[in-house]
Amino acid sequence: MSMETTLRKSVSDDAQEVYRAIALIELGARMQLLETELTLSRDRMIRLYRELKGMPPPKGMLPFSADWYMTWMPNIHSSLFYNIYLFLKEQTRCSRLDALTKAYRLYVEHCGQNRLEVVLSLTRAWTLVRFFEADMLQQTPCCRCKGKFVAHRHDLQAHFVCGACQPPSRAGRTKKAASSKAECGSLAA
Ligand SMILES: [Zn+2]
Fold first, then answer.
1. Exposure on the CB side of residue 58, measured as CA atoms within 13 A
2. Are 20 and 88 part of one and the same domain?
3. C-alpha of residue 21 to centroid of ligand 1, in Å
4. What is the pTM of this model?
5. Which of 8, 10, 54, 169 has a Cα-to-Cα distance from 148 of 20 to 30 A?
6. Are residues 87 and 170 in the same domain?
7. Which domain holds residue 156?
């Protein structure tokens, strides 16, 4: 490879990384995500963050509990996101990080179109993917709707009924149950 080609490649790689950082910051990425996933220097990412958000990046711990994904509404949203993510990762040739970005954007669009609250933040979505990569989670099919839902790694698979097919009684409002049912339908493989 000639010197010129090497240079040109690294400049375009750098531009790609900046482009990825911008997309992630706009979707709500925190510094921990950017620092883990991108090769840009911390200073540049902080500058980018300030420029795009008009404020310094927030400090503080990220959420770190797999149990959050098991609660009723978060489980439906996480499962929806993860199905989109897996589809993009397996069916298109995009990288894991691009699949995350694109899947999250599609998830937010889906919520907007269906007037649903965006329950899953980008940080939670990223953490979800990392929990799957660490084999802490698995997908369990619902025996009624056949959708695949996020579950703990060693949870029993048989006779599982998802939170959309069987909402908890406190969530008994008809409209909410109907909308989660519709979402659940889109999870069936
Ligand atoms: Zn179900």
1. 9
2. no
3. 36
4. 0.83
5. 169
6. yes
7. 66-185
